[in-house]
Amino acid sequence: MKSYEHVRILLVEDSELDAELTIHALKDGKLANAIDWVKDGQQALDFLFHEGEYSNSPPNPPQLILLDLKMPRVSGIEVLRVIKADSRTRRIPVVIMTSSQEDRDIAEAYDLGVNSYVVKPVDFTAMTNIARQAGYYWLAINKSPVT
After folding, report:
1. Which candidate, 19, 13, 8, places its Cα nearest to that of 96?
2. What positions are modified (4-aspartylphosphate) (predicted)?
């Protein structure tokens, strides 16, 4: 069994309710010991590249990024574009968790290198299960390259 004592997840989500459900699911499933939650795309980029309010934080990249698409300041698509274009972050698995079912969003996300695209259900229990399953797959089943 894989140890999750040093697993870090970055959750990029502007909805407080969706963030709370996701964090609860991941902690309940014991899938991470550290979940960093940022509320918009600019905060995500600052966190990942140690800029802005995170300029003094030590480098500690996440093993998984859960990314919403529709966010203020910088969209999830733009965050994904930057993550996958930079050698420091391109290997980090990114799972988009969004309410958007638009074909163009799905296509653009995969064109940019997203690892998975999940449409968030509106049901509390289903949302919790999706978050737990996504975390379990990417952290326990999938074999990621060493970064």
Report:
1. 13
2. 68
